[in-house]
Design goal:
This protein has 487 residues and is of the alpha/beta class. The chain has 16 helices and 25 strands. The chain has a 7-stranded mixed sheet with strand order 15-18-19-14-13-21-22, sandwiched between helices. The structure holds nicotinamide-adenine-dinucleotide (NAD). Residues 147-151, 174, 176-177, 206-207, 210-211, 214, 225-227, 230, 233-234, 248-251, 282, 384, 386, 412, 452, 457 line the site of nicotinamide-adenine-dinucleotide (NAD). Belongs to the aldehyde dehydrogenase family. InterPro entries: Ald_DH/histidinol_DH, Ald_DH_C, Ald_DH_CS_CYS, Ald_DH_CS_GLU, Ald_DH_N, Aldehyde_DH_dom, BADH.
């Protein structure tokens, strides 16, 4: 059976490359090639820049309310096609249908809707300075590049294009080479909604294509989602043309469970924050610090619920709640971390092996895995694993657990479970993380800014401030009297 070949999406249509280079995309749940994609060669790269320049000229000349109207049309189409798009995400990522069906498309559409609504409300300021005055304009940056990770491909494309387009920029988006189809679908939807050709372009390929985007002098900004190490390369490369940057990087986030917490609720949060999307979520609370007074109760319930309630298998089966990891290579990496956990002395509470469910025997599954008796200096406690692997640690002193939670160069997210309202805020204010939850974990509505402290990121996505990250301020001084000059 021949599989489809997708070309790059430039200037409102598919465009064939000249090199003929393609790459294959596999369904992680079956290990089968499902389609091929053409690599963005030099011809495509040049065409993408020309297209985005033209797109920017047309789009930035429209009023914010005109742009908003068109983007809201795209939002309606995204929602109408929810199931078709959710299926694309399941086949590309291996994540369960029961998640994609209600989260991936919806949270992407929400963010475009949010920024479409905000765009016409963005205003400059004016101030008198003596008899003169100045005023400011919020102007778009120009061509913005988006570079995406593979865990939420369509959502990431929406989260980057929403504010960028609302503010009047053109976008060249490069999805992860593991999950390239969602962004193409989004590009088609933008065209159908009336976004002018050239405003949203999709280039395909791996690191080299990303590297080209970060170095290209015609691109004013890069918004990147991916690993810390790749983020550093992106920043170094973007320095050559002093680009504006947004960085959404990795994490190793702590969840603190105090002895007055609702333990069952904390177990729910820990499971969501480690096993949702088979653990491939950047904000995951992979370090769970539990107060010694509730430690045994916590791990007993955690073990029972993990062993009884998780169903791995064909991700399209609506009953399945644990999907396949993105690739064989990633499965092997996650298993190697589990081996390290065992060899460094952590106790395996449950899981620890690859899985081969009857309905998806060739998929890259890993059992939901929980380590207890973990120590702060173990590799599994220090490094991001990006799979369904949870480390549980004990504490008995508030100040000490805050110090331990902060003892990392990462700072994406953090959570606290306690019924003591003062302790909840006191502790969360001391945690060095950009996205925090009290008696909750993982929710990320369009209205709430998200991004990391320390090496987990720069800048924010979502929330009002993000619109500022896609505009630049022009100050205009107006003289109301004759110039006084010594010349
Ligand atoms: P990755 O860093 O390997 O790749 C991310 C993207 O960068 C891909 O599109 C890739 O092709 C591209 N790329 C690779 N090398 C490049 C280079 N030199 N220059 C420019 N682009 C390059 O990350 P991944 O494996 O796709 O995703 C997993 C990581 O993403 C995890 O660390 C996770 O925590 C992080 N993540 C963060 C967030 C967030 O919002 N903070 C969200 C999702 C994922």
């Amino acid at each position: 059976m021949t599989t489809p070949v997708y070309e790059n999406f430039i200037n409102g249509h598919f465009l064939k490359n000249q090199s003929g280079d393609t790459f294959a995309v596999k369904n992680p749940a079956t290990d089968e090639v499902i389609y091929h994609v053409e690599v963005a060669d030099e011809f495509i790269q040049n065409a993408a820049i020309e297209s985005a320049k033209q797109g920017f000229a047309a789009w930035s000349a429209m009023t914010p309310i005109e742009r908003s109207r068109i983007l809201l049309k795209a939002v309606s189409i995204l929602r109408e096609r929810n199931d078709e798009l959710a299926k694309v995400e399941v086949l590309d990522t291996g994540k369960p249908w029961q998640e994609a069906e209600c989260v991936d498309v919806e949270t992407g559409a929400d963010v475009i809707e949010y920024f479409a609504g905000l765009a016409p409300a963005q205003v400059g300021q004016q101030q008198m300075v003596g008899n003169d005055f100045y005023y400011t304009r919020k102007e778009p940056l120009g061509i913005c590049a988006g570079i995406g990770a593979w865990n939420y491909p369509l959502q990431i494309a929406c989260w980057k294009s929403g504010p960028a387009l609302a503010a009047g920029n053109a976008v060249i988006f490069k999805p992860s080479e593991e999950t390239p189809l969602g962004a193409i679908k989004l590009a088609e939807i933008f065209i159908e909604a009336g976004v002018p050709a050239g405003v949203f372009n999709v280039v395909q390929g791996a690191g080299e294509v990303g590297q080209w985007l970060t170095a290209n002098p015609d691109i004013e900004k890069v918004s990147f989602t991916g690993e810390v190490g790749t983020g550093k390369k992106v920043m170094a490369s973007a320095a050559g043309s002093l680009k504006d940057l947004t960085m959404e990087l990795g994490g190793k986030s702590p969840l603190l469970v105090f002895d007055d917490a609702d333990v069952s609720q904390a177990v729910s949060a820990a499971m969501l924050g480690n096993f949702y999307t088979q653990g491939e979520v950047c904000t995951n609370c992979t370090r769970i610090y539990v107060h010694k007074n509730v430690y045994q109760q916590f791990i007993d319930e955690l073990k029972t619920r993990t062993e009884q309630n998780i169903i791995a298998g064909d991700p399209m089966d609506p009953e399945v709640n644990l999907g396949a990891l993105i690739s064989k290579k990633h499965q092997e990496l996650v298993l190697s971390y589990i081996d390290k956990g065992i060899s460094e002395g952590a106790t395996l509470l449950t899981g620890g092996k690859a899985l081969s469910p009857a309905s998806a025997p060739n998929g890259y599954f890993v059992e939901p895995t929980i380590f207890v008796d973990c120590k702060d200096d173990m590799t599994i406690v220090k490094e991001e694993i990006f799979g369904p692997v949870m480390s549980v640690l004990v504490f008995d002193d508030e100040d000490d657990v805050i110090r331990r939670a902060n003892d990392t160069h990462l700072g994406l997210a953090a959570g606290v479970f306690t019924k003591d309202i003062q302790r909840a805020h006191r502790v969360i204010h001391q945690l060095q993380a950009g996205i925090c939850w009290i008696n909750s974990y993982g929710n990320s509505p369009a209205e709430m800014p998200v991004g990391g402290y320390k090496q987990s990121g720069i800048g924010r996505e979502n929330g009002i401030e993000t619109l500022d990250h896609y505009t630049q301020t022009k100050s205009i001084y107006v003289g109301m009297s004759n110039i006084e000059s010594p010349f």
